[in-house]
Amino acid sequence: RQVHSIKSVELFLTFHRRIFIRRTLHPLHQSVMLLSRPVFLHLFFQIYPFHLFCNKHTSKPIILIATCTMIYSFFMMSTRQNISNFRPLLNATQITEEPEEGKPSTFGQCLALLGKPFILLSFLGIMCHVGIDVGTNTTAPKILMERLGMTLADAGFATCLYFIFRTAGCFSGAFILRKVSPKGFFAFSVFLMLLAMIGLLLFHSKEIIYACIALIGFGNSNVFPIIFAQALLSMPNKQNEVSGLMIMGLFGGTIFPIFMGVASDMLASQVGAVLVLCVGVAYLLFFTPKLSKQ
């Protein structure tokens, strides 16, 4: 059991370490290279008039998002530096993979693994996780606009708040899971989301709505890696097939918004969308006892 727990934590840490290197260090390196070139002056003269225009027509969070997007897009097009400079960092994470035996599985054989109860439950858990993620991003601004009469520009901050706490949850989860069992932390995360959904259903205060959005972001941040790691460890001889099935579960992000839209139209309120999100949280609550304690 102790070895099982260590492998689960190692999979979680490896997942976030590679995401950090690919999504943070690489863009940071590109931006530093850009600042060292004369082309940066051209970038400055593009952004400065844009900033002056937006400062009079929209809110600061939107300006920040648009400016960062422009900078990132510009240096991605202007520089040819690739991720090979960070190959030593990527190679620092050694992963020992066992050689595959027999022929590769077909698509039908991969789908057949859904006949395993835990794999099926994990697949549905990934769907609910992504559905809650996408659904919260699309619904949070609408809730603020509906209940508080905010403009779309002001209500858009809710999406930023969600991702701020989601990022904080991913970072802190790497340290928390060193001390807490995956099952215990998963249960705590789902409880935070359940508390937030109740708050979104009952309260109309701006501060409470923001707090609920932050709780959803933090609570939903570590659901995917925990489910993913537990699914892989449940069938170590079929890790490639199980991994593919878990990634297929990401299409839950396209299903939840459909039902959320239908429910909102039926109730003529965003309460319908929140109720659909509650279904996803309820499933994760049901799924919690199925996880391994180690």
Report on this model:
With 294 residues, this protein is mainly alpha-helical. Helix content is 77%, strand content 0%. The chain has helices at residues 2-35, 39-54, 60-78, 87-91, 107-112, 117-148, 152-155, 157-176, 182-202, 206-219, 223-234, 239-248, 252-267, 271-287. Helix 6 packs antiparallel against helix 11 (223-234). The longest helix is centred in the first third of the chain and has 34 residues, at 2-35. Mean pLDDT is 78; it is low at 38-43 and 77-81.
- Radius of gyration (CA) equals 22 Å
In whole angstroms, the N-to-C terminal distance is 6 Å
Tell how many strands the DSSP assignment holds. Answer: 0
Mean pLDDT: 78
Proportion of residues in extended strands: under 5%
Q: Helix content range of the residues, please?
A: over 70%
Summarize the main sheet.
none
| Silhouette | globular
The sequence of SSEs as H and E is: HHHHHHHHHHHHHH
The DSSP helix count reads 14
